[in-house]
Amino acid sequence: MAKKVRIPTPLRKLTNNEELVEVNAATIGEAITELQSRYPGIAERLVDEKGEVRRFVNVYVNEEDIRFLTGSQTPLKDGDEISIIPAIAGG
Amino acid sequence: MSEKHEGFMKALKCRECGREYPLAATHVCEFDFGPLEVAYDYDRIKKSMTKAAIHSRAQSMWRYRELLPVANDPTVGLQVGFTPLVKADRLAKKLGIRELWIKNDTVNYPTLSFKDRVVSVALSRALELGFETVACASTGNLANSVAANAASAGLKAYVFIPSDLEQGKIVNSLVYGANVITIKGHYDEVNRLCAEIAGKFGWAFVNVNMRPYYSEGSKSMAYEIIEQSGWRIPQHTVVPMASGSLLTKIQKGYQEFVKLGLVAEAEYSIHGAQATGCSPISVAQKAGLDFFKPVKPNTIAKSLAIGTPADGFYALRVMKETGGAADDVTDDEIREGIRLLAECEGIFAETAGGVTVGVAKKLIASGKIPANDSAVLCITGNGLKTLDAVVGHVGKTREIKPSLREFEAMLASEEKVNA
Description:
The complex is a heterodimer of chains A (91) and B (419).
Chain A: E1 3-6, E2 20-23, H1 28-38, H2 42-46, E3 57-61, E4 64-65, E5 81-86
Parallel strand pairs in A: 1-5
Antiparallel strand pairs in A: 1-2, 3-4, 3-5
Chain B: E1 9-14, E2 20-21, E3 36-40, H1 42-48, H2 51-55, E4 85-87, H3 89-95, E5 99-104, H4 115-128, E6 133-137, H5 141-153, E7 156-162, H6 167-174, E8 179-183, H7 187-200, E9 204-205, H8 211-214, H9 219-228, E10 236-240, H10 245-259, E11 269-275, H11 280-286, H12 312-322, E12 326-329, H13 331-345, H14 351-365, E13 374-379, H15 387-390, H16 404-418
Parallel strand pairs in B: 5-13, 6-7, 6-9, 7-8, 10-11, 10-13, 11-12
Antiparallel strand pairs in B: 1-2, 1-3, 4-5
Helix pairs in contact in B: 3-13, 4-5, 5-6, 9-10, 10-12, 11-12, 13-14
């Protein structure tokens, strides 16, 4: 079983409106590289020039923010679900 | 132009890269995920929004209508805002400052928090854009306001809240007939889920896809503070921070009035208040950083319990630009702040108000707000909604029989103890 990535609405133009795509990467960083090879242009939306996840992008592995894990080094295992979510206002 | 009439709005604009988007229900730049913000035609606004025009209008937040993002006349929440600005002499003395004012949104209409401001804008705009269902992710107050204002506008409402909220906040959403969904998790998790739901359902999520309109409603608090202060910007404004949005919008409101020539440019500082149990922004500010580290919240100030504050970067920037400071207070200090405000001024605020008073006390004591200056505290929600937080901490009742003798005996024994 591979890992599933949930693509947020603002990025679906790049994924031909695919909402859920599968990757085989072993870390979040590699997953972004893998997405980039299939959907050119997606990586620059997610990470800045230094390869850091952009400050208005939140990435979750199985509902946990990767900033509470090991950032882009966060390891992935089969069946993991990755969500990419824009930061949201208060409530 | 064959364009549709959009009032005084020009476009949605990315705060990061400046790319422009149509005035639709969308909130994120497709290129860098930066938040979208409404751009206005200030030249036209300047001609239309004079002091005389403002004075001639009803006393609600809509007297500043040109600066609020709706195309036509508002249709939801026409009575919201213009809450009292109260001179707080007794509290000023207690906190050791020359002059203190309370911007009292504990009595905002109709749901007793500043959220009625943002919801009034968001739902008026949602109707313009043709939505029939509105929704939100909320720490409580927003849910109450969406539920009530949706009911009065005949809209269907779904509100999503953390399941551990205060009873008062839950009942205050249910009573209006809204669909209240409680999520086993903290607000940041509710938020994440709502972002996913918003991408899937065609609803107006006030703080997701409607956020560019919604968040502008907060500016009305700044406009009112200026007008009620006699058309002056206060030297110091202390603002509670959850996502940090209100603080940035107070700054934007002050700056817009300067730009329109409605108030003189002056030196002022905007300070931020958080609870120690959820203080990513204040910790960063105190460390001199321009970025924050997300936290997992643990505080009685549940309305401020956002561990990943979306506007944290911008809030830090505003404090830096205006020479403001941030601080945070413990649960006990929050309760003390609630009591101080109640006992000195007769205003019962929710936990967020206790945070603001507690932090103001600290900033005055440390000289970051000089004792000789004047300050406004933004008190954003009503204490009746967070009774759980103060029950058992605000004194005790004494029970007697309906007998004068017993009453006199009680007073006598208490005097003896107090003597």
